[in-house]
Amino acid sequence: MTYEVVIIGGGAAGLSAALMLTRARRSVLVVDGAEPRNAPAAHMHNYLSRDGLSPLELLKHGRAEVEGYGGEIVTAEVRGVTRLEDGFAVDLGDRVVRAQRLLFATGLVDEVPDLLRERWGRDVFGCPYCHGYEVRDQKLVVFGEEMKVALVRQWSDDVTHVPSVDAIEVEDDRLVAVISGSRRVPADALVYSAPVKPRDEFLLALGAETAETIAGPFVRTDDKGRTSVPGVYAAGNVTDPTAIVIVAAAQGAQAAGMINVDLLGLMPAAG
After folding, report:
1. In a 3-state reduction of DSSP, which class is residue 83?
2. Which of 34, 38, 177, 186 is placed for a possible disulfide with 169 were both Cys, Cβ 3.0 to 4.6 Å?
């Protein structure tokens, strides 16, 4: 099968791009590994008109909208991506599909230590904009850069900074304390700055250039989502570690518009 666009990643960025492209009557395949970054969270926030909605519900509705316009969505793991003279080949294991253009919306991985994994997205989280309001005026512990303490104080006056998180205490399925060295700090929530790793292996293999960000090197794109590789686009957290859900969705739509123009042969010069 040959598609005009294959989108790798079916989160907010990928589905938003697919929606725009299917409505532009493009043939689109979305390949999703079914591992959304925000799956542990019961609710997402700061998404206008959808604040408080389950992240999985957003994806459910998004998939239905894309399929309603004729887009195809498959749950599969991409095994490889190869550049061809007239496009790209995407290996899905049981078959190989071709694409005239590629959009990577593969996101990133929060490298959360095992001791925090079960609480991640609940009372342990990284983004105070996403979860801070729900723990307002409670006892908050911050692990990470000192500057984050000032930010977290917007939601509570009871904020403690720790240099390490060696253990946590949980009672009745809620966080009650953080152990930092020999210190026990009572806590209702922990703001934890976990390292992040973009899912960019195939982008790098295609030769995409990177740029330094606050989270390390990420694939570089212009303001339309174009990477340094002709015909290859990226949107969402795979290129922008700070993008919350609504921003990732907007980036997907932005890239989709440029892909459509590209397919028409009307691509403006990069810059």
Report:
1. strand
2. 177
pLDDT at 269: 65
pLDDT digits (tens, 9 = 90+) for 124-166: 999 999 999 999 999 999 998 888 999 999 999 999 999 999 9
| Of 78, 127, 89, 75, the residue nearest 248 (C-alpha) | 127
96: nearest Cα among 75, 83, 85, 80: 80
Asked if 208 and 232 count as a contact pair (C-beta separation under 8 A), the reply is yes
Q: Which two tokens stand for residue 177?
A: 């304390």
DSSP 264: T
Q: Residue 139 carries which side chain, given as an amino acid letter?
A: K
pTM score: 0.95
CA angle, 100 then 101 then 102, to 5°: 135
Measured between alpha carbons, how far apart are the two ends of the chain, in Å? 33
Quote the CA–CA distance of 93 and 55 in Å, as a whole number.
Answer: 28
Q: Specify the 3-state DSSP secondary structure of 48.
A: coil
Question: If we measure between CA atoms, which residue out of 13, 65, 58 comes closest to residue 255?
Answer: 13
Give the distance from CA 3 to its chain's centroid: 24
- The most distant pair of C-alpha atoms in the chain lies apart, rounded to whole Å, by 64
**pLDDT (tens digit, 9 = 90+) per residue, 72-111?**
999 999 999 999 999 999 999 999 999 999 999 999 999 9
